[in-house]
Known about the structure:
By secondary structure, the chain is α/β, with parallel strands linked by helices. It is about 50% helix and about 10% strand. It is built from 17 helices and seven strands. The protein has helices at about 5-10, 20-25, 30-35, 40-55, 65-75, 80-85, 95-105, 110-125, 140-145, 150-155, 165-190, 210-215, 220-240, 255-260, 275-280, 305-320, 340-350, and strands at about 60, 130-135, 195-200, 240-245, 265-270, 285-290, 325-330. The chain has a seven-stranded parallel sheet. Helix 5 (about 65-75) crosses helix 11 and helix 10 (about 150-155) packs across helix 11. The chain is globular and about 60 Å long.
Amino acid sequence: MDRSWYVRLAEEGLTMPLAVDLTLHKDRGPEAVEAVLTDGPALGEVLVNAARQFGAPLALPHMDLTLEKEFLLQGLLSGHDAVGAFRLKAPPTEEETRALAGALSGPLSRGLEAQVDAVRSVAAEAKDLIPCAMTIGPFSLMTTLLEDPITAAYMAGTGATGEEEPSVALLWKALELSARAVERSLRAQLEAGARLAVVCEPAVNRVYISPRQMRAADNNFDRLVMANLRHYKDILDEFGADLFLHDCGELTDGILAHLVELDPAVLSLGSSEKLWEAAKVVPPTTVLYGNLPSKKFYSDEVISVAGVTQQAQELVDNMAAIGRPFILGTECDVLYVSGAEDQIWAKLNAMGEVTRK
């Protein structure tokens, strides 16, 4: 797509909260929600409704970052709860390796297939919207497969090899499997018609990536994070699709500087980051998105409607002061919380009432 299109959206003052999860739960009980999550056309309808709720031109998918893990492990485990709790304690055995390889080359899991079908449905039925893909990034997926990914990443950063340190051997194996699962997911959604892909790497942050090690040797960050992301950017280029890179973790300038090397069309950052400071590092050809603290919207005691308005206005004013158009949004998909729906919706609606200069 023409990259200037995203810049125009920002210049026009688009406000676009991520509200798919709230829309999914609206007027539905738990059983109905579960049914939609495995029904591609029904899920596609939710994506369309969530976009139109706020006049957004992008049909962004449900930010369920467990789908690729569930797909990868379907040959070993059954049941969403079992997948969520699963951690590799040692490199896969020969039998486990065969099961994982079979999963990666076999049919998609039900949840991932529904997401792909939802993209296809949006592409076919909602011609006024841009169909979008959604996937977790391979580094972040890897961290969900290990019991102690922080230590493993640190040891890899010291230069320890898999032969010297078992945790490093396990990290590289988990990262390899993760990269393959993410690529399969990404290609399936692009083949279904996605024209923009949201790649979520929330674990690419200063907790998992030692700033000191990055200053000493950037090649470890390249191996852990950038090599796979560059490969996915090449895949997007192959399909003529754009990158919407999402990282809601606490960043360093070094991490941010590397991420912008991918030249994403849109960069989404968490509320820990000041967008007007990030703008010093992010070129104007990449539209900044975000980044109100939506993880706190469930509680008026944590943040009130007035607090959301104040923070949104501060963000708008600071970005205007540096002459940087951006898309006002949330740091993540705003999660449904039973009993807090009205106050959450009130905060989302308040975002749209902020004065844009």
